[in-house]
Structure prediction request, 160 residues.
Amino acid sequence: MATPVLASTSVPRFIDNDTNVSGYSNSRTGFSEYMSSSSLYNGDARIQSSGSNSYYYYNFPSVTVSANAPTIQVKAYLNHSRFTDNQAKYYVCVNIDDVYVNIGTINQNTATSGWNPIQKSISSGHKRSGVYYIDSSFVQTSGNSGYSTGTDAVYVTPIY
Prediction:
């Protein structure tokens, strides 16, 4: 069941990889290498060659947003020297038809250690029955050879 969100309310969804901390599920195509380090959020992450076409999905309970053209913010936790993808792509699902919107890219090689925010305003053309249904996010490798895409925790928030 979706949680209604008013235009003045922000309901973040924090999702960690490979742990039960967030209580939500993850799935992946690629990202088979598991890594652990004290610099990583909750001590673990996943990594994949950026030259592949791989995805790491973060699934969470749906949030409905009725505001027109809300801004969706994704914060990615990046804190490891092996995360070097210079154009890691971040997406958020915005409706029940599984339409994903590219929120932006993050240069993981030059990213600040810790939370790295990107955001984008969502067009009203993505509404279904007068609302946006936000229930998942994913990171995709850039396709650029010679780099590695890291995936750790993400934080998804509609902001107004």
Summary: The chain has no helices and 13 strands. Residues 1-10 have pLDDT under 50 and may be disordered. The radius of gyration is 15 Å.
